[in-house]
């Protein structure tokens, strides 16, 4: 359930948020050539979220490519009461480590930067997130998505074990 890819052809109701735009340089014999790299997160605030990156000679083109990549990689995540996550999770991408914890109702999203953008677009309303290690925005966003995808609900665990929820 958590790693279930979502078929995005039916719904184009995804919001988008630019996480980072950076200028990248390729040094050749003839000099330096500059391009732009963009990272975009998309989501519907109801449990669907995706991240994509794109690179082009101009910023708008890079954002457009990143948006297309993000729309291709939309995942359904598990939410409890459509507001928080089922359990605590820690995930690592590169040197960026992200810790996410469920929070009580009304607490809000306590997170910063790229993790906050991903959590908002995923539809998580009450969560505490902490970025440990590197603060590279792209890796923090990917680690947050990975942590969201690792979430398991009681129903899912019961289904995997072949038991009822009451037996757990």
CATH structural architecture of the largest domain: 2-Layer Sandwich
Radius of gyration: 18 Å
Helical percent range?
Answer: 25-40%
Tally of DSSP β-strands: 8
Number of domains: 2
Average pLDDT: 90
Q: Can you list the strand order of the major beta sheet?
A: 1-2-3-4
- According to CATH, what is the class of the largest domain? Alpha Beta
Class from secondary-structure proportions: alpha+beta
Which percent band covers the strand fraction? 35-45%
- The number of helices is 4
Low-pLDDT runs of 5+ residues are: none
Shape: elongated
The CATH topology name of the largest domain reads Ribosomal Protein S5, domain 2
Strand count, sense and closure of the main sheet? 4 strands, antiparallel
Q: Could you give the order of the helices and strands?
A: EEEHEEEEHEHH
* Through-space gap between termini: 18 Å
Question: What's the quick description here?
Answer:
This protein folds into two domains: 15-75, Double Stranded RNA Binding Domain, CATH 3.30.160.20; 78-158, Ribosomal Protein S5, domain 2.
Describe the structure.
Strand 5 and strand 6 form a beta hairpin. The protein starts with 14 loop residues before the first strand and ends in a 7-residue tail after the last helix. The protein is elongated, with a radius of gyration of 18 Å. The protein is 27% helix and 36% strand. With 168 residues, the chain is of the alpha+beta class. The protein has 2 domains: 15-75, 2-Layer Sandwich (Double Stranded RNA Binding Domain), CATH 3.30.160; 78-158, 2-Layer Sandwich (Ribosomal Protein S5, domain 2). A 4-stranded antiparallel β-sheet has the order 1-2-3-4. Strands 5-6-8-7 form a 4-stranded mixed β-sheet. The chain is built from 4 helices and 8 strands; from the N terminus they run E-E-E-H-E-E-E-E-H-E-H-H.
């Amino acid at each position: 359930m958590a790693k279930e890819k979502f078929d995005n052809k039916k719904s184009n109701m995804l919001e988008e948020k630019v996480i980072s735009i950076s200028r990248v340089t390729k040094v050749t014999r003839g000099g330096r050539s500059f391009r732009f790299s963009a990272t975009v997160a998309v989501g519907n605030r109801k449990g669907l979220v995706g991240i994509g990156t794109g690179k082009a000679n101009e910023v708008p083109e890079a954002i457009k490519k990143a948006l297309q990549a993000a729309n291709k990689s939309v995942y359904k995540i598990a939410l409890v009461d459509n507001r928080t996550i089922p359990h605590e999770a820690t995930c690592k991408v590169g040197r960026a480590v992200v810790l996410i914890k469920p929070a009580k109702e009304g607490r809000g999203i306590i997170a910063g930067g790229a993790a906050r953008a991903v959590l908002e677009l995923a539809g998580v309303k009450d969560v505490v997130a902490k970025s440990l290690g590197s603060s590279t925005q792209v890796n923090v966003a990917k680690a947050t998505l990975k942590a969201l995808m690792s979430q398991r609900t009681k129903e899912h665990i019961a289904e995997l074990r072949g038991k009822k929820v009451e037996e757990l």
